[in-house]
Amino acid sequence: VVTQARDLYPIIIAAISALVAAFGAAFMTLWWQQRKEKRSFQINVFSTLMMHRKANPPTADWVNCVNLIDVVFAENKDVLAKWHELYGILCIPAQIGTEIHQHTYIEMLSEMAKALGFNKLQQTDIDKFYSPQAYAVQAAAQQELQNLARGFFENVNRLIASQQQQPSVSQTNQPSPPGRTL
Q1: Cα(99)–Cα(107) distance, rounded to whole angstroms?
Q2: DSSP string across 29-87
Q3: I need a surface site. Which of 81, 111, 149, 169 has the fewest CB within 10 A?
Q4: Is residue 150 within 8 Å of residue 108, measured between CB atoms?
Q5: Is the pLDDT at 106 greater than 80, yes or no?
Q6: DSSP structural state of residue 174
Q7: How confident is the model at residue 124 (pLDDT cuts 50, 70, 90)?
């Protein structure tokens, strides 16, 4: 009877080891996948903010990404501190576009870069931005077109308003043309 119990120990240990290995592998796979997805979200937010860092007005993608910073970088107090500082600036319209706004934004992107392991990315690199001259020309042309359209519609509205203020021809006492009597 003692010999049979000794023969069962290796089988029990092998079964327990197999179960621990299977659950451990499953746990590690899930942990790695969750970590990878979290990093993917962080890189997506960071890269979108980098792509649109000089957009004026801000794009919808930029706005969506800054609204995700509290969630995506929840565990990084340095990124969150810079984001909250930038948020305070964004809530005061007079500060938007100022030097402090730009500097805080670059600092926030720099903290994100550090959190993601882009240690060689400097603030001077983040501040660099390429925008073809054609974009500026196109933006100026669109602005001019909008101004012209606004002016046109303002003139039309003034004309309509002035026409409404003048009495209509049928309401005035116009003399009858000569040769016709009523």
Answers
A1: 12
A2: HHHHHHHHHHHHHHHHHHHHHHHTTT-SSPPHHHHHHHTTHHHHTTT-HHHHHHHHHHH
A3: 169
A4: no
A5: yes
A6: P
A7: confident
Q: Would you tell me how many other CB atoms lie within 10 Å of the CB of residue 72?
A: 20
Burial (CB count <10 Å: 0-12, 13-18, 19+), residue 83:
buried
Higher-confidence position of 168 and 48: 48
The predicted-structure confidence for 87-104, as pLDDT tens digits, reads as follows 999 999 999 989 999 999
Give the Cα separation of 172 and 147 in Å (integer).
Answer: 38
CA distances from 100 to 16, 19, 60, 75, 103 (A): 61, 57, 23, 25, 5
Flag whether the pTM goes above 0.90. no
